[in-house]
Design goal:
Elements: H1 9-21, E1 40-49, E2 52-55, E3 66-74, E4 78-88, E5 101-107, E6 109-115, E7 120-126, E8 150-154, E9 160-163, H2 166-173, H3 180-190, E10 194-200, E11 203-208, E12 213-218, E13 228-239, E14 248-251, E15 258-265, H4 267-270, E16 277-283, H5 286-291, E17 297-298, E18 304-308, E19 325-328, E20 334-338, H6 340-348, E21 352-359, E22 370-373, E23 383-391
Antiparallel strand pairs: 1-23, 2-15, 3-4, 3-11, 4-10, 4-13, 5-9, 5-12, 6-11, 6-17, 7-8, 7-10, 14-22, 15-21, 16-20, 16-23, 18-19, 18-21
């Protein structure tokens, strides 16, 4: 049984008061020092400068809120190509309406990665092989038909209707002739959906699947039938960037480029048995991120990074757990993460090693690349800063 040391009561009291009245700053400057008791000394130290490496983890591209489609040549991160895959469900159509219905997709592009002024052209192919959105990995490749069945464009729009050819409609309607009890099973066994393959353009559009539909539109009517059964994206880097990287790492939010940072916490490193505040500080290169975008080009970002504590077996599967730490970037390009609880727990236990995996925001189908500065970046290198209270 651990015993509580009564001699620590005055020190912990000072700690509680200080936590309520101070803010630690990297370059000195303590707010609220007039409220600090006279007997402790406040000391702010950078106790470790850290290094970020990268490790690709298992990444899945299906069953997310957004589906990506298009191609964009990013000067900093390379050329990405995204093929959206969508399988419509089957909805029966009355014979009296069959001649007048036009089948197609109502898609809602809500975000853009790339040149917002670009017009993207896509060919639609039928997928020839069964696939499951929950199991579709980022590096999987769909098996497509020998020729496209339709073509469409995405310009400056937040909604578009993409009609499918009449020949496909006639094939789709043959499932009306199958007994109702067997119809869905027959359709799902034989129809694998469509791939939207980029032909030209310099942007990737993100389709909000929750707002999109597979529809059967009746002439002179607002009636809409159908639904989307599953979706995924075949999203890959097809050409590396030629921009020279001096001291930084590229990370993604889809775990294809995952940052990795490791550090040890113990009393010898920290120089105290406990701290009033500890921060893990990472920096993005805001100037480089901005200067590598052309006129009218954008990289969508929520300006958040997320750090995960993953066991070895958790890295072998799609990461569904919540992030251990997250932070938004400030005006100086810094992500300041409060790790006071982790540090004090490690000190109380006699020391501990930590490893975190870093991604640039949540993995919801919108790709958000980021560029973090590394150990040779001087004052903007990754670091741990602690504020210590030492009794006289």
């Amino acid at each position: 049984m651990k015993r509580f040391n009564r001699n620590l009561i005055p020190v912990w009291g000072a700690l509680v008061i200080t936590l309520a009245t101070i803010t630690a700053c990297e370059d000195g400057g303590i707010v609220g020092t007039s409220f600090i008791p006279a007997n402790p000394d406040l000391q702010i130290d950078t106790v470790q400068t850290l290094s970020i490496t990268t490790e690709p983890l298992v990444s899945y591209a299906g069953a997310k809120t957004f589906a990506a489609m298009g191609r964009y040549q990013d000067n900093l991160f390379g050329t990405y190509e995204a093929v959206a895959m969508i399988t419509p469900g089957f909805s029966p159509v009355a014979d009296s309406l069959a001649d007048d219905v036009t089948f197609g997709f109502i898609l809602r592009p809500t975000q853009t990665y790339g040149d917002t002024n670009s017009i993207s052209v896509f060919d639609i192919y039928e997928i020839q092989e069964r696939w499951r959105s929950q199991e579709w990995r980022m590096d999987d490749t769909p098996v497509l038909g020998s020729a496209p069945i339709a073509r469409f464009e995405i310009g400056d729009t937040d909604s578009l209707f993409i009609p499918l050819p009449d020949s496909w409609k006639q094939h789709y309607l043959t499932y009306n002739q199958i007994a109702e009890a067997d119809r869905d099973s027959a359709y799902n066994q034989n129809e694998f959906g469509f791939a939207f393959v980029p032909v030209s353009g310099n942007k990737i559009s993100y389709i909000n699947i929750t707002q999109s539909l597979f529809s059967g539109v009746i002439a002179d009517s607002a009636q809409v039938l159908g639904f989307i059964r599953q979706q995924a994206s075949n999203y890959r880097l097809i050409e590396e960037s030629t921009v020279e990287i001096e001291d930084g790492v590229k990370i993604m939010n889809d775990f294809t480029r995952t940052g990795k940072i490791s550090f040890e916490i113990n009393e010898q490193i920290v120089g105290a048995k406990f701290v009033s505040r500890a921060e893990l500080v990472l920096y993005e290169d805001k100037q480089l991120l901005q200067s590598t975008l052309g006129i009218g080009q954008t990289r969508y970002s929520n300006q958040i990074i997320r750090l995960y504590d993953l066991a070895s077996d958790e890295k072998e599967y799609y990461v569904t757990k919540d992030a251990t730490i997250s932070a938004a970037v400030n005006d100086n390009g810094a992500y300041r993460m409060n790790i006071t609880g982790l540090v004090n727990t490690a000190l109380a236990e006699g020391g501990r090693d930590f490893t975190f995996y870093i991604v640039s925001d949540q993995d919801n189908g919108i790709i958000r690349p980021n560029y973090l500065l590394n150990e040779n970046s001087g004052l903007r290198a990754p670091k741990i800063i602690v504020t210590k209270i030492q009794a006289n």
